[in-house]
């Protein structure tokens, strides 16, 4: 058992290297949840997947709440939508900093935050990485698997598939804003199948693209 820390929000005390928010706004939506988790969900940034007001990833926005709802159904999430209780699940973003409304992160800002994201991912050391959307999926496949060069970044095709990683199983999730018929159910089914398997044995073992 890892027993990393009992803190729920920003368990490793990260301090973002820049702040583009107003004086009364949140600096960042920090990593949140069970720091000893086997399942790690990775979003893009607070403007897309939520947290600018709550400080909690996967709250507020339609896409964020759709992800939260799936993990509620599969038994990982309980409690309120704004400050949920997570069990065996951790949430964070490749770009944790909040930005003014209507602003998107620059590539330089993504690059500047990469070391913070990587440090937190390795500290959590989950078995299953679940990147949400094209940006997070591209980053995770490039940095934590050897598969990116032979996979098209077609999120509709990659959605809810199992992909072998370097010590991780990766299950990409298409952004909920692009879900079609059956996509939510496919994700629920994949999560339930993983939970029914001996998924902890995938740690350090090559799993199949499927």
Topology of this structure?
Blueprint: E1 32-33, E2 39-43, H1 46-49, H2 62-73, E3 77-79, E4 84-86, E5 89-93, H3 107-124, E6 128-131, H4 133-144, H5 155-158, E7 163-164, E8 169-170, H6 183-196
Parallel strand pairs: 2-5, 2-6, 6-8
Antiparallel strand pairs: 1-5, 3-4, 7-8
Description:
The chain has 210 residues and is α/β, with parallel strands linked by helices. It contains six helices and eight strands. The strands form two sheets. It has a six-stranded mixed beta sheet with strand order 1-5-2-6-8-7. A two-stranded antiparallel sheet has the order 3-4. Strand 3 and strand 4 form a beta hairpin. The model is unreliable at 204-210 (pLDDT under 50).
Keywords:
six-stranded mixed sheet, 210 residues, 6 helices, disordered C terminus, alpha/beta
Note the overall shape. globular
Residue fraction in strands: 5-15%
Number of strands: 8
Our measurement of the CA-to-CA distance between the termini, rounded to an integer number of angstroms, reads 29 Å
Query: How would you state the average pLDDT, rounded?
Result: 91
The radius of gyration over CA amounts to 16 Å
């Amino acid at each position: 058992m890892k027993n990393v820390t009992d803190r729920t929000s920003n368990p490793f005390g990260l301090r973002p290297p820049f702040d583009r928010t107003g004086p009364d706004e949140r600096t960042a939506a920090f990593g949140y949840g069970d720091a000893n988790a086997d399942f790690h969900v990775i979003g893009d940034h607070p403007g897309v997947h939520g947290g600018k007001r709550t400080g909690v990833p996967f709250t507020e926005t339609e896409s964020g709440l759709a992800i939260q709802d799936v993990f509620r159904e599969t038994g990982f999430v309980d409690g309120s939508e704004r400050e949920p209780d997570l069990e065996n699940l951790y949430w964070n973003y490749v770009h944790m900093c909040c930005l003014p409304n209507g602003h998107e992160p620059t590539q330089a800002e993504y690059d500047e935050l990469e070391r913070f994201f990587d440090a937190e991912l390795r500290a959590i050391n989950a078995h299953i990485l679940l990147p949400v959307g094209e940006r997070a999926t591209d980053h995770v496949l490039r940095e934590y698997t050897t598969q990116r060069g032979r996979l098209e970044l077609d999120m509709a095709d990659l959605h809810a598939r199992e992909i072998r990683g370097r010590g991780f199983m990766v299950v990409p999730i298409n952004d909920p804003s692009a879900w079609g018929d059956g996509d939510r159910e496919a994700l629920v089914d994949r999560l339930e199948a993983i939970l029914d398997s001996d998924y902890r044995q995938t740690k350090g073992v090559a799993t199949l693209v499927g």
